[in-house]
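for ur thesis appendix - DUF3892 domain-containing protein. copy paste whatever u need, i formatted it the way the template wanted (i think)
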Amino acid sequence: MADVLVSCINKRDRNSTHEGITHLGNPNSANGGWKWTRAQVIASIEAKDNTFYTLVNGNRGNIGVVDGPNGKYVRTYADGKWNDNLLALPECS
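the 3d part is after this line
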């Protein structure tokens, strides 16, 4: 299992919430960069193939799967509560 840093996201539009995230990625990772769909990240987390996290202002936020009213989406969890670390990330190119 790999522990994977997410450093960028894509959303349907700039005002989207966590449910609007379409892709997660890291263009600067050691393997030359990556960008996965939200569905691919969810499947990897649920299969326990990988863990994903963010680093915002030096604070780690683990990415988890939330089963919302419109389906599954991803969100960060740190210090015992869900937070907006993913939404603070820049857009992936």
